[in-house]
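Batch manifest line 261
LIGAND: S-adenosylmethionine
JOB: complex structure
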Amino acid sequence: MNDTAVKIEQVVEHYDRLADWSELKEYYSGSDYLNFGYFEEDTKSQKEACENMMDQLLSCIPDKSGTILDVACGKGATTAYLLRYYPPEAVTGINISDRQLEIARQNAPGVKFLNMSAMDMSFPEESFDNMICVEAIFHFVTRTEFLKSVLRMLKPGGSIVFSDMLMTWDGEERRPRRTTENFIPDLDSYRSALESIGFSTVTVEDITEQSWRRHYRHATGYFHEQFLAGKITRDELSQRLHETYERVPDLKYYLKVCCQK
Ligand SMILES: C[S@@+](CC[C@H](N)C(=O)[O-])C[C@H]1O[C@@H](n2cnc3c(N)ncnc32)[C@H](O)[C@@H]1O
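JOB STATUS: finished
ARTIFACT:
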């Protein structure tokens, strides 16, 4: 088994475990999102933050006509959100897990869901008017190769909109589901890397505060409330706080990115 295959297997195992974790689903108010979301000052819940994230990304696609591909669609909550704007037959979702796709099909009936890796997409050239990818691109080996294939599969004038996370070198190296091949040290290098792929316009917005920082404050507050309500033990509280804060020194930027062909 090569390195890429190992990573894919680990990614599927990790997200499938989270997919069936009922307490996590409760944190997401019963929805099937799995991302940090975008917290406005008055955002009350993680689910609302995830819906805001969809609004943020979709604001980069003013003309929501034609077809759209949801890359790494998770359990289809992001895909279901797309149905507010698109008819189901215009939407395709891909993921690498049969388990998650099974849930996605329930969340977004009528959508075409395929078990396909973003690193090996087999769509013809100029297949989609637009694409979206929420909080997954850093898993793809590599981000740049993925975006090159996106450029081929988008129709002229089409956009890919996505959220991305940049980590320190150590963070990329330590995590089995990430790779130092995707390490980028700062935002200027990030913009240049994307521009050199060949998109006509690239916009990169630093939303670190609205996304993961506020998410962390929200999540840690939630865990404390769970503890105070007697729903989790002190050990469980400690473990959740440990897992949450463990990431803090490694995370550098959370980004909202729009690239137009
Ligand atoms: C953090 S979750 C985000 C899920 C969804 N986009 C959301 O925001 O709710 C990351 C997702 O990326 C998927 N994924 C990771 N690597 C992938 C790949 N190479 N191709 C397709 N999907 C992938 C995982 O299975 C998981 O569902």
